[in-house]
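Kindly inspect both lines:
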Amino acid sequence: MEKSKVVVFAGRVLAIVALLLACCCMAAVAQGGEGARVRESLIGFLTELAGGDKERARGIGWDASVEPCDGNRTVWPGVGCNGAAAGDGRITAIVLERKGLDGTINAASLCAAAPALRVLSLEGNALRGDLPAAISGCARLTHIYVGDNRLSGSLPPSLAELTSLHVLNVSRNSFSGEIPAKLSKLGLVRFCGNDNRFNGAIPEFELSRFEHFSVANNNLTGPIPDDAGDFGRDSFSGNSDGLCGRPDFPPCPPPPSSGENDGKRRRRARTIVMCLGYVLLGAGVAAFVLYMMCSKRRRRPSGVGGKTAATTETSSSVTPGKSAYSLPMSEERMNATAAAAAAVARATPASLVVLQRSGTAASTVMTLNTAAAAAAEAARKLRFEDLLRSPAELLGRGRFGSAYKVVVPGGAALAVKRVKDAAGAEEEEEFRRRMERVGKARHPAVLPPLAFYCAMQEKLVVYEFLGHGSLAKLLHGSIESSQVALDWPARLHIASKVADGMAFMHGALRGGDGANANLSFSSSYEEDEAGGAIAHGNLKASNILFTATMEPCISEYGVTAPPPPSSAPAAALRADVRAYGVLLLELLTGKATAADGAELARWVTAVIREEWTAEVFDRAMLSSAGAGGDTVASEQRMVRLLQVAMRCIDDASSPSPPPTMREVAGMVNAIREEDDMSLSSEA
């Protein structure tokens, strides 16, 4: 009995094993059949590209008997695989450029066979037909290149469903119709639509983020987008004079009238508006004259010799030459009573604290030129009244105040920063201590304050005037290229000098009174003494100025007190490191950034994630990298500097602690030393 039970049990086990083996075989057969169907779909796609010519398709080298990818190794020519990341050898790129293909694009077959496709490049063939709407089935596409073919028809609106699309090149075809408006909602950075037959208006693209944009030689009409300033006439020319709005294009006509009565009503309304404008202008002038007379009468008793040191805010329309362009007073001081103004005027000569008695660090380390000597001499005799009475020119306005060029008696030119008080105004004594400590720390790459004034919520900081432009103007075309060649060595030099200056200031101002210029600093920001560290607070390209020898110099160090959320010294110093990382991105990409640089950082991160790192770098810098040197080695050093920038910015996502400025300066200087050695060996 027991023997029969054993036999029955063994039979059941064998049946289960046989069933499992059958399932495995069926799965293997199904998988093999699925792979065969994918290969057949791809071969069919290629055959249609070749116009049905199987011999020509076979000449490309795609073999239906073998898999197109072996892990991350490409087997079929022109096919890119991403097995290292996906683990299954999926097709991520198809590049069939200039193969003499003259058929049509079967997007449905392609997307069904390669759903992970990111790059499709069919440039330089003779393809006909249209760009199928089924292309949206390849949902992961980031780059589409179909330029220089014979494609026609309209661009499919379904392109707007490709939410990852960055580059779209449809140039030199015969496309017609309107450019789909919803393309402006994508994150495109390049659009090449030139040399087609597009009509209608240009969609509302956000052109400020584009690297390249061209719709030349079409039949487009209407206004050119307002933010197209970075793109010249060549990007829009050849549209039969249908485009308007730019300086080198005809002005845009007013909207068409709906009838004679409408035209009369508009003319009547314009006349009424003009009359009201003249009346309001006259009333404003009269009120201004009355205000000036009353203000002069109130101030006359409180000045020295019948004149006051206070000066009112003036409009840019006032005729220059007298006190109309004197340094304007803040709104708080304008609203002060006459008695308070008189008290301040009497106290101001002793309130201006002079910090520097002989030229700036930048001047003494390099060459004490005539302008620097004049500024040093002017600093010794500087009085608050001189600043208020001297002619002033507005240099710029920012989040934290305004900057002026002031020519004091004797002809010396100074730069004056008026600091805007944030909510919860900083104590005067705290501002005074901070500026005195910053004035004691000297480094050739940091512009020290000459003097400062702090009273009645009015804060002024005086510097030597450096009139050779800023890094922002140099990068973005406001300085003539003949002054300095901003090639790769020059950018690396600027990055190194700024890092040295910031690292020195972070070390010298970590604690105490900052008198020891060689004070070292710890490797962790968490070891700050309470209230000891002083950060820059507003490091950006416009605050990197140039000396007469075009050496970079950091300005406005410590002028801005960090806002309450960043009031801890550690957080303020980390913010400086992040700001330096954004500065490196500007140097490497050549792109301007606004506010905290978050948008530029996101763009760089997205491009790197797509493994198109070379597209990050400024083309002008790349073209100069290999002039007389090793291009590959220079580009490798660019990538290393980009990695330093990302370490400075991505402190939250990195498992390691964020670097200090000393560590950042060490990494940047190592790259620069290697670059210098490379140049020396080539010489």
Notes: The chain has a mean pLDDT of 77.
